[in-house]
Specification:
Elements lengths: L12 E7 L2 E6 L4 E5 H4 L13 E2 L5 E4 L6 E4 H8 L1 H28 L4 H8 L3 H8 L7 H10 L13 E3 L5 E3 L1
Antiparallel strand pairs: 1-2, 2-3, 4-5, 5-6, 7-8
Helix pairs in contact: 2-3, 4-5, 4-6
Length: about 180
């Protein structure tokens, strides 16, 4: 059975209304979600004009005037806050991405004939952390990811696999 979020209309925002510190979002599939404005407001924003919220041209974001800049709230964020099944799905996807990045970094490192110790030393991180990253047991910050890639002579674009790459039953990425 296909999940309801596989339908693009699940994330497309049709309308947004503000009332009493809550936003009521109507999605293109007919669902209505209510979410507290305080759960959406980033800490850096001030003078937030919730009542002047507008929908982006792609209809996937809510744009809210604020200082020092507008707040853009993706439909998937609203769905994650209001649909526990979707939130679980997004958490599972994040875990898969962590595993993918770690596996891909290991593949790139081995492709250069480098050891974990060599890469960790060049990237100025602990070898144990690189091992955890490669095994998908450690979230990696963007700055650390860039350092690891640079230490191996790669760029972020090198993380992408070609279309023939697939995950096997053991959760390892392999090319067909």
């Amino acid at each position: 059975m296909a999940k309801k979020w596989n339908n693009r209309n699940y994330l497309i925002i049709k309308a947004a209304n503000f009332e009493k510190n809550k936003l009521e979002i109507t999605f293109a599939n007919g669902d209505i979600a209510q979410v507290s404005c305080s759960s959406l407001a980033p800490s850096w924003a001030s003078n937030v004009q919730w009542a002047q919220s507008d929908i982006s041209p792609d209809r996937l974001h809510l744009v809210v005037p604020a200082v020092p800049r507008n707040i853009e709230i993706a439909g998937h964020v609203i769905r994650s806050l209001t649909d526990p099944d979707f939130a679980t799905h997004m958490a599972e996807r994040a875990a898969q991405q962590t595993m993918y990045i770690g596996t891909r970094l290991r593949e790139l490192r081995k492709g250069r004939g480098l050891t974990q110790a060599q890469v960790a030393d060049a990237a100025k991180i602990e070898p144990a952390n690189l091992s955890r990253i490669e095994n998908g047991h450690f979230d990696i910050s963007t700055s650390t990811l860039w350092k690891v890639l640079a230490a191996m002579g790669y760029s972020p674009a090198d993380l992408a696999l070609n279309e023939s790459a697939k995950m096997n039953a053991k959760g390892e990425w392999a090319r067909s």
